[in-house]
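ok so I'm stuck.
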Amino acid sequence: MSANFTMWNLDVHDFGAIGDGKTNDFVAIQTAITEAQVSNKTLHFRPLTYIVSNELQISSDLIIEGHGAQIGTTNAPQRSVLAVQNQTLAEVRHLTLNASLVADHAMYCGGAGQSRFERVVFLRARKDAVLLDAKGSAGGNDCMKFERCIFQHSGQIFSEGTVSVSKGVSATITGSGTQFKENGIRSGDFIHVGEEWLQVATVDSETQITCALHPLSDGHAVGTKYTAHVGDGYREEIFNDNNLCVHRDCLYRGNAGSGARFAGLYGPRIENGQSDFNKAFGFVVGMATGSNVIGSSFHGCYTEGLGAESFFLGYAAGITIDTLNCAGEPIRTSNPSFNWGILSNVQGQMGALMPIGTEPLIHVPVAALNTHTNLPPEKPNSYTHGTILFKRAPLPGDYIGWVKLGAAPSSDWVPFGKVENPQ
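replied:
not stuck anymore, here's the structure
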């Protein structure tokens, strides 16, 4: 290596790392991390597979260049492959963190505010691929940035025993032959019972869970089958300092729970995110129990092949969802009075802005590509609530289109966008 390279950079192989996919490189890599932090140098990996037996920890500012390397774990249970904590500003690029279905998380964050991750793959965790914990001092995990990252194939689904569900102020799930605590079910996870998705508020015992009340059914009889979905691609715990994260061009795929769950006091900005083939929701914002997430923004996102809906809005105040490509999959709200904001049209077509609705299930409206001189004769069920039709060649004083309000054929079409005479 040149003298100029070694002045500003370190290589993990200089500390004894092998990278053959078999040798335990934990001591060598952790030593290299510590030295890079002390000397303020960039740490480099080679495009090899490294195995570690314990959690690697970044506890002060550090830049890591992965160069396509993968870090996996042995069969020793641990919290994560990599932990970023202690109010650390880290930058990690072009690296794969593989929890190997052994570690709870590929990455754990407990004080990683302002850290940035680019082209990092987080996968095969027992629970969440990435967890932003509710620990740390002010600014703990604020303003983290993820660009072109992948959060995938993490979490577990449990279905031992059967349940019944009774509903009052909240929903109580009572199990027979269940192991709710043993299976690690947590507040914020989802239970699927019948056709209903319930968000866990508290795990009371191995046989009882309390969930937030969703306005969808009257309950379920003893002996009902269920599935418990533990583990999201990306998960924020409820915390006033898990705020304002930014995700650009990220993929959330094939997780047992939802693609991503946001629970900081101030919400995320998600641009061009793709959430597909997750067993629960595409994106979850807030908690149905009343944990408020303020000012979230989702732009240009895509969902497909989900177990539930594209979005679950638990308590999303001032949310904006625009240019959502989801082929009509609905948005589910826990309680309409908790959620408000702006929903723009989808599938790349021009459309009206509308408030997040008052129904527990909100079907995303689609604007018709064709235009009409006047409103067409309506056939039963030919147009759904929220359909938008545009007027061909509107004149001054005309409206540019109509919005269908209501599902019945007799429902009103409301005009919008009046064309004013130029002054």
